[in-house]
Design goal:
It is a single chain. The chain has 100 residues and is mainly alpha-helical. Helices cover 57% and strands 10% of the residues. It has five helices and three strands.
Length: 100
């Protein structure tokens, strides 16, 4: 039973999407991104389904969007430079969500 509980995400694994987007945009100036709230909304519209499927973001029961602190930057970068998540990115993401 303890092993099952250790695989559950913890609140520290996530931050608000807006905060994660702002941090990501500021950390990658070479991509020419703006870190405004509206840019984040636009990104969520375009890439939200892919990020949700890969586990980089989650939607709460109240509709808020949270971003995984480790997976979101890695997968967002992959989407922005390649246009899609490769199978390798998704399998790596799933492995990163499970603690050793």
């Amino acid at each position: 039973m303890q092993d099952d509980l250790s695989r559950l995400p913890t609140p520290g694994d996530y931050e608000s999407f807006d905060s994660a987007w702002s941090t990501f945009a500021k950390a990658h100036p070479m991509l020419g991104l703006t870190h405004s709230r509206w840019a984040g909304i636009h990104v969520r519209r375009i890439y939200g389904d892919s990020l949700l499927h890969a586990g980089a973001i989650v939607r709460t029961s109240r509709g808020r969007v949270l971003a995984h602190r480790v997976l979101f930057p890695r997968l967002m970068f992959s989407l922005l430079i390649g246009g899609e998540l490769m199978a390798h990115d998704c399998s790596t993401a799933q492995a990163d969500r499970r603690p050793a």
